[in-house]
Amino acid sequence: MACAPHPDHDRGLEFDLATLLSRRRTLGLFLGAGAAAALAACTPAPIGQGGAPASSAAATGGAAAPAATGAGPSPAVTRALAGCGTGFPGEAAGPFTADGSNGPNVLEESGVVRRDITSSFGSSSTTVQGVPLEFTLTLLDGANGCRPLAGAAVYAWHCDRDGRYSLYDAGLENENFLRGVQEADGRGRVTFTTVFPGAYNGRWPHIHFEVFESMKNTTGAGRVLKVSQLALPGDACSKVYATAGYGRSRRNFPNTPLAQDGVFGDDGGIRQLAAVSGSPSKGYTASLNVTI
């Protein structure tokens, strides 16, 4: 897809990576409340909207999560496990990367460096609809006391509210919405403005991301530090999918419980489950620490 330069982000990228990283999992990790609290004490709190610490609990009220899905571990335990020195699971990038490893290469497009990923850029300006979501990844250097990885780069992508991916699903071949690149700030944070992803059969609701050593390294098969996924809590998913426009996701969501997900199922997403706050009417914020 030929894309015209974006007036604010004239930073065209060139990228041609092979399939990046196979799943790397650590099995059988169980933490008691005391261990979780100790880890949490050395873990920087996830940052929410406006730079304030995000709430450690999902919003309350609304429809309850279907019993078959399960909400997964608590956000407090998730943040502790994603914190200092414990590492973060690597996952397969999936079939809809659009990073040059499986068909389209959105990273070659001028305009992909952006915070708001709700619209296509270049030859299309289609904007997706859905419950607003702002998610923040805090990148930490596990080999150096969990110092922030300032200057690292993140490419993030996810499906729309119907579970479809731009550049791949029928009718969306000329769209590139819900994809973008950000550079980590001095605190190691990248934040994307988007909509709450939908659910499709075979997967628990999630967001994909790749972490590069620097913005420069995204332009020429540079070093990839991590490929992984963020999982969304079940209670927030149930509330969002009960709203208008998410009918397909509402039907699909109960079909793949977290424990049966091919990516998160082996440990219940205990390191990858984001801390989420908000409501369908006001939108949500999500945050997750990613130790490299």
UniProtKB/TrEMBL annotation:
Protein name stated in the entry: Intradiol ring-cleavage dioxygenase
Organism: Arthrobacter deserti
CDD domains from the UniProt entry: intradiol_dioxygenase_like
GO molecular function, one term: dioxygenase activity
Swiss-Prot/TrEMBL keywords: Dioxygenase, Oxidoreductase
Coiled-coil positions: none
Residue ranges constituting the Intradiol ring-cleavage dioxygenases domain according to the UniProt record: 130-203
Region of interest (Disordered), residue spans: 50-72
InterPro entries xrefs: Intradiol_dOase_C (IPR000627), Intradiol_dOase_core (IPR015889), TAT_signal (IPR006311)
Domain of life of the native organism: Bacteria
